[in-house]
Write a structure and sequence with these properties.
Length: 154
């Protein structure tokens, strides 16, 4: 993992600088607002669903490099996925960032999500990395209340 750290940091910085799918989506089927009061991250996740397929996903807001890049990467991975596949990606991502820093990760299984493996070395950043993901799940579940990292441990 350490040999990949520089590459991973570069990917995170690139997504922070030029976030993908960073736009409003008036035609969204559902949306959810997420807030991390510890870091000031504040995003709205928009999801357009057709049947069980996520046709489009975008986000707007502001936050630290970890939260913004996590939201950006998430939006690139979810298009065309089913709700169940989106939930499975969340479980993989959440499992990786909350695992012990010494735990092995399967980069082949995680794909682009593995760039966030370094987050597990900084526990206060886990909430930054997972905010968009929790917000996406809340949107798919039709929850109206904003998601806050203080109501969810990670």
């Amino acid at each position: 993992m350490p040999e990949n750290r520089a590459l991973y940091e570069q990917v995170i910085l690139e997504h922070n600088k030029k976030p993908r799918n960073f736009r409003d989506m008036p035609e969204a089927s559902c949306k959810s607002e997420g807030y991390n009061p510890l870091c000031g991250d504040h995003f709205t996740i928009y999801v357009k669903v057709n049947g069980d397929i996520i046709e489009d996903v975008s986000f707007m807001g502001a936050g630290c490099a970890i939260s913004k890049s996590s939201a950006s990467v998430m939006t690139t991975l979810l298009k065309g996925k089913t709700r169940k596949e989106a939930e499975a990606l969340f479980v993989k991502f959440h499992g990786m960032v909350t695992a012990s820093p010494e735990a092995d990760i399967d980069e082949n299984d995680l794909g682009r999500l593995s760039v966030f493996a370094g987050v597990r070395e900084f526990p206060v950043r886990i909430k930054c990395a997972t905010l968009a993901w929790h917000s996406m799940l809340a949107a798919l579940d039709g929850k109206d209340a904003p998601v806050t990292t203080e109501s969810d441990p990670s």
